[in-house]
Amino acid sequence: MYFQDKYYEFPNDRQAFEEIRKILPKGCKVDIESTGVYHVNLAKYLMGEYDVRIINP
To answer: Are 50 and 56 a contacting pair, CB within 8 Å?
Structure first.
């Protein structure tokens, strides 16, 4: 994940999603590249607080 010119790497699990939520300001727009099934859980987790958009490259 890139945010404010800094790269972050997380596993694909709930604990990591909570860490991502701590980094991102509430209400920001989040673009997620659709890579297999890896994006689905993160997108679902963030949809309540963020404007999530799935990008198909």
So the answer is: no
Q: Give me the residue spans of the domains in the chain.
A: 10-55
The residues with which 52 forms a beta bridge, in sequence order, are: 30
Write the CA distances from 45 to 5, 30, 51, integer angstroms: 23, 12, 12
* Confidence (pTM): 0.78
- The answer to whether 32 and 42 are in contact (CB under 8 A) is yes
Which residues are 29's β-sheet partners?
51
Q: What's the token pair of residue 38?
A: 């890896």
Cα angle 44, 35, 22; round to 5: 45
pLDDT digits (tens, 9 = 90+) for 15-52: 999 999 998 998 899 999 998 788 899 999 999 899 99
